[in-house]
């Protein structure tokens, strides 16, 4: 069967067209889910895939399409992402079993709450999830958290509002606490929730940097660093 997309059925061309599409869709984002987030996750996922022996084509497609329609920006609808990714891949005549695998990864990628355990079924999914999580920690993770918080109208910090270790995805989704809480509710937990040893190696320094930032933030908040005695 010939379709009008027959010319772009080879892998590299499909990846190139997908990257171009995602770049256009996410160009104007200011919530930390912009094209450069996707590009970093894509690059990291390729490195992890090589180290772990994962199928590169599936990994690249899932990394590129993973935030194409995130539930956070689609009224909490978790099906928006996989649906948008599938429609795009179908338009490029990507094979049905690849589409299904990629959509499955996207549907299961998101963090769902501190006390919610999620398992990623395939090595390809584990690699993409790790790459996405590595971009949520470290210096870039800090910047993204406050960008997201500003975008969502959250305060920086409020000592009267304690962090919550969410028991369900529904509770996690509804959460609207200040951004510093997000470090305790998700970001500082990620290092111990990675799937691959390659990602765990990268995570350690990023985690330590983030922990030092939070410690410093709280000590400046309290004025502990001010010695004005002379
Ligand atoms: P996930 O799907 O696991 O949430 P994303 O790729 O969508 O992963 O990235 C989530 C990003 O959004 C992280 O960098 C995180 O810091 C930020 N984020 C999500 N929820 C919050 C929140 N409540 N406060 C601050 N940042 C948040
Ligand atoms: Ni992401």
Name the shape in a single word: elongated
Give the distance, in angstroms, between the N- and C-terminal Cα atoms: 84 Å
Strand tally is: 0
- Compute the gyration radius: what is it? 19 Å
Major beta sheet summary: none
Number of DSSP helices? 10
Heteromolecules bound = adenosine-5'-diphosphate, nickel (II) ion
Output mean pLDDT.
93
Structural class: mainly alpha
Helix content: 55-70%
Low-confidence stretches: 1-7
Instruction: Write the element-wise H/E pattern from the N-terminal end onward.
Output: HHHHHHHHHH
Beta-strand content bin = under 5%
Strand and helix layout:
Layout lengths: L10 H16 L8 H18 L3 H10 L14 H12 L4 H13 L14 H12 L3 H14 L17 H6 L4 H7 L11 H25 L9
Helix pairs in contact: 1-2, 1-3, 2-3, 2-6, 3-5, 3-6, 4-5, 5-6, 6-10, 7-9, 7-10
Bound molecules: adenosine-5'-diphosphate and nickel (II) ion.
Can you tell me about this structure?
The protein has helices at 11-26, 35-52, 56-65, 80-91, 96-108, 123-134, 138-151, 169-174, 179-185, 197-221. With 230 residues, it is mainly alpha-helical. α4 (80-91) runs antiparallel to α5 (96-108) and α6 (123-134) runs parallel beside α10 (197-221). The longest helix has 25 residues, at 197-221. The radius of gyration is 19 Å and the shape is elongated. Adenosine-5'-diphosphate binds at residues 32-33, 67, 70, 109-111, 132, 136, 141, 144-145, 148-149, 154, 179, 182.
What does this entry show, briefly?
The protein is mostly helical and 230 residues long. 58% of the residues lie in helices and 0% in strands.
């Amino acid at each position: 069967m010939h379709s009008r997309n027959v010319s772009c059925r080879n892998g590299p061309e499909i990846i190139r067209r997908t990257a171009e599409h995602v770049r256009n869709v996410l160009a104007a984002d200011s919530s930390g889910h912009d094209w450069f987030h996707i590009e970093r996750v894509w690059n990291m996922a390729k490195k992890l895939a090589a180290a772990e022996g994962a199928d590169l084509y599936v990994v690249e497609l899932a990394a590129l399409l993973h935030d194409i329609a995130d539930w956070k920006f689609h009224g909490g609808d978790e099906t928006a992402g996989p649906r948008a990714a599938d429609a795009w891949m179908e338009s490029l005549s990507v094979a049905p079993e690849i589409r299904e695998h990629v959509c499955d990864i996207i549907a299961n990628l998101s963090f769902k709450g501190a006390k919610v355990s999620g398992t990623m079924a395939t090595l390809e999914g584990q690699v993409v999830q790790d790459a996405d999580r590595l971009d949520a920690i470290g210096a870039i993770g800090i910047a993204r958290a406050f960008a997201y918080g500003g975008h969502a109208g959250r305060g920086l910090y409020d000592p009267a509002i304690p962090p919550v270790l969410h028991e369900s995805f529904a509770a996690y989704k509804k959460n609207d606490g200040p951004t510093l809480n997000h470090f305790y509710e998700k970001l500082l937990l990620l290092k111990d929730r990675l799937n691959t040893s390659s990602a765990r190696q990268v995570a350690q320094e990023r985690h330590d940097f983030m922990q030092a930032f939070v410690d410093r933030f709280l000590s400046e908040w309290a004025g502990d660093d001010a010695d004005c005695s002379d």
